[in-house]
Design a protein that fits this description.
This protein is of the alpha/beta class. It has 9 helices and 7 strands. The chain has a 7-stranded mixed β-sheet, with helices on both faces.
């Protein structure tokens, strides 16, 4: 797999990703909903519905950002939700959001590395990741770490961008991702690399059956890919 980094510096991908999200954290939610036209909300809702059968007591949201997926996970009625992210800037914005919405007693937001999770084995009944795994420095290590902290019979739902293969969606998607999205992202975020990195990272990500194989290699069972909106994104689910 090709390693794509936000800034092409000598720093590790992990450090660059943290820097990038720190840079765009104050405009991230606005940009996210503008660029996805709000459809990301529906995608997260569908992913959460796929976890209902587990009736989780504890939920972990990896690469939580400002906590949108963690908030959606409240519909599972768990006792506790933990969000973890490497970007302090994103977490700071997320903590403000949780306090404003009155969710701060139910959702905790922690600074941490998703490839070295600071949790005991078998600790969480459900795990969510929204548009985060393609930013992992070591993809298999991150996937294996989540498997380690997932409880017996626990379930994971990973939401990630995919690459549409069919005409004309493929052509429209590429035009939007390569031309429109970077232009809007640059204007609003003031970080020109952040939204050119996004399509580059999606292009390099091993989606579809390749990612299903990685999950199976890391120990997950009953792994499935559910494609969304003409293949623009996918939900990958698996059990321990």
């Amino acid at each position: 797999m090709t390693t794509v980094t936000p800034y092409n510096q000598t720093e590790s991908k992990k450090a660059q990703v943290a820097e990038m999200f720190n840079n765009i954290s104050q405009r991230y939610d606005l940009l996210n909903h503008i660029l996805s036209m709000g459809i990301d909300i529906l995608w997260r809702r569908k992913a959460i519905n796929l976890l209902q059968e587990v009736k989780p007591n504890r939920v972990l949201d990896v690469a939580t950002g400002t906590g949108d997926f963690a908030i959606e996970a409240l519909r599972l009625k768990p006792a506790k939700i933990t969000g973890i992210d490497i970007s302090r800037g994103m977490l700071d914005m997320g903590k403000i959001k949780m306090k404003d919405k009155g969710y701060d007693s139910k959702i905790e937001m922690l600074l941490g590395d998703s490839e070295n999770l600071p949790f005991n084995d078998n600790m969480f009944d459900a795990i969510t990741v929204g548009f985060g795994v393609r930013n992992f420095e070591n993809l298999e290590k991150g996937i294996a770490e989540m498997h380690r902290v997932l409880s017996e019979k626990g379930k994971i739902a990973i939401l990630e961008f995919s690459k549409p293969r069919k005409f004309p969606i493929k052509q429209l998607y590429n035009f939007y991702f390569l031309k429109v999205l970077p232009t809007i992202g640059k204007l609003i975020s003031k970080d020109p690399r952040a939204y050119t990195y996004l399509p580059e990272s999606v292009k390099a990500f091993p989606d579809g059956e390749d990612f299903v194989s990685i999950m199976e290699k890391c120990g997950y069972n009953e792994v499935k890919q559910i494609t969304l909106t003409f293949g623009i994104a996918s939900i990958y689910v698996g059990k321990k």
